[in-house]
Amino acid sequence: MHADAVERVAERARQLADGYQPPSFSHVPDPDAAIFLCAIDHRTGYRGRYLVGGKGPFEGSALLWAVGLQAARRQRGLLTAARLSDVTPKRVAELFRIGGETVADPDRRAALWRDLAAGLEGDHGGEAEALLAAAAGHLGGTGGLLGLLGYEAYADPLSKKSFLFAKICVRRGWLEVHDPESWEVCADNVLMRLALRSGLVHPGTGEEVRAATRVAFGQVAGTAGIEPPVLDDLLWELGRDDPDLLGTEGGDLSEPQRDPASAWY
To answer: Cystine design at 128: which of 31, 160, 200, 217 (Cβ 3.0–4.6 Å)?
Structure first.
């Protein structure tokens, strides 16, 4: 990683950020819905694109959220610890069924929901709002939000789900962060591909590239004057279908292969 590459990518990021509006998450009704849907937002397995409630079409993660929130609107209190403490795989499959298919691995998703529900009940009276209050505006540290999300569903190696939950809560006004230095750009496959192709990081093993990407985009965010969560959204949204978004100085490179044993990505 070179300083000139950071400067070059930061300038491109500033150009892209001009007029960019990150997601407001205004469709997410409350912290409980957010914490339970973030908890199962990985490898959805959906193959098609569908309209949900006359909106869309949605696919992948967006489809999971749209279907889940539609179910919650129809059944008040659905996405709460009290209702999900004994949820079954069959019930998960039913909730997320659309167009003749449903979300992948309902067994694992049901187990993650049960574990999260039990943890919230034991630690915070079953309320995501109480968990946010306990964080007292902090992301980092053992008592911060990231540390309090110490449940199996939030154990993904990138903390991508934890940061997503945090972003939603901040933008919905449920959380005010007092330690913004704790924000990180999540080095998922999309961002690793952008970092490699732009020459921001060098090829290596999956963990090497992931670590370098996280550090590099942290420097880009600081140099460009863009908050890390906003940069994270911008790069993922615009770079998902455009691997050359930040340039091609690194060559025709792809992100390291996914770990087939990973249940997350």
So the answer is: 31
| pLDDT of res. 41 | 96
Closest CA to 250 of 216, 199, 201: 199
Determine the Cα angle at 139 with ends 239 and 171, to 5°. 55
Taken in order 157, 80, 145, 21, the sign of the CA dihedral is positive
| Structural Rg of the chain based on CA atoms | 19
Categorise residue 48: left if φ over 0, alpha if ψ from -120 to 50, beta otherwise: beta
In this prediction the pTM is: 0.92
**Whether 191 contacts 235, CB under 8 Å:** yes
Quickly state the pLDDT bin for 85 (edges 50, 70, 90). Answer: very high
The DSSP symbol for 182 reads G
DSSP-based three-state secondary structure for 51: strand
Closest residue by Cα to residue 16 from 244, 199, 254, 212: 244
Q: Find the mean pLDDT for residues 130-155.
A: 96
> Under the phi-then-psi rule, with left for phi > 0, alpha for psi from -120 to 50, and beta for the rest, what region is 30?
beta
Planar angle of CA 190, 193, 195, nearest 5 degrees: 110
pLDDT score of 157 more than 60:
yes
**Share of residues in the chain with pLDDT > 90 (%):** 87
User: Is the per-residue pLDDT at 5 higher than 90?
Assistant: yes
- Helix/strand/coil for 52: strand
Q: Which residues pair with 98 in a beta bridge?
A: 101
* Helix intervals (H) in the chain: 3-17, 31-39, 60-74, 81-84, 89-95, 106-124, 128-135, 145-148, 160-171, 189-197, 206-224, 228-239
pLDDT category, 248, cuts 50, 70, 90? very high
